[in-house]
Every structure is written in C-alpha cells, then in structure tokens.
Design brief:
Layout (H helix, E strand, L loop, with lengths): L1 H22 L1 H29 L6 H45 L6
C-alpha cells in the first residue's frame, strides 16, 4: 500500500514538474542544460568505452611468472658456474699430476 502511495506521489510530482517546466522559463532552462549535460556525458562515456576496448590486457601475472623463472634460472646458472669452477680446479690438479708423472717416467726413444 505504501509503495502505491509513493508511486502515485512520484507520478503526481513528475506531472507537476512537467507542467511547471512549461510555465517557468528558469526550470525550462535548467531542464535543457541538464539534457545537454546528459548528452555530453553520454558522448564522453562512448569515447571512453571505445578507448577501453583497445587497452592491452594486464600482463602482471605474466611478469610475475617471468621473474620467478628468471630467479630459478639465475640459481641454476650459479650452481653450474660453481660446478664448472670445481671441474676446472680438478682438471688443473690432474694436469699437474700427469705432468709430474711424465717427468718421473719419461719414455726414452729407441
């Protein structure tokens, strides 16, 4: 019941304001200004909608994944560099041992 009363009141107020606008030039001017403002804002919204269609997708997730892969790869590189350094040290050690062996057991040509 209250809803019906409010609806009737709203309709009466709307019809009264429509009649008032025709009678009062100030209200007519305000209505026209508001209509123009609504048109302007609708145009701006249309432009913004078009612009947002062309916005590239958000790559934040891809960037985070790439950073995680880079961290893992950097750790792998560091591990491999240590392994190469260890192998080079072992090679130098074996070269020195082999050189000492060749000096000690020098083969004489026939």
């Amino acid at each position: 019941m209250t809803h019906r009363i409010l609806t009737v009141f709203a309709l009466a107020a709307a019809s009264f304001s429509a009649v008032s606008c025709k009678d009062n030039p100030e209200l007519v001017r305000q209505r026209d200004e508001q209509a123009a403002e609504i048109k302007r804002l609708e145009g701006e919204l249309a432009v913004l909608d078009e612009k947002t269609k062309d916005v590239p997708p958000d790559r934040t997730k891809d960037l985070a994944e790439a950073k995680a892969r880079a961290t893992v790869q950097a750790a792998e590189i560091e591990r491999l560099e240590k392994e190469v350094a260890t192998m080079e040290a072992r090679k130098r050690e074996l070269d020195a041992t082999f050189s000492a062996y060749r000096v000690k057991y020098q083969v004489k040509p026939l």
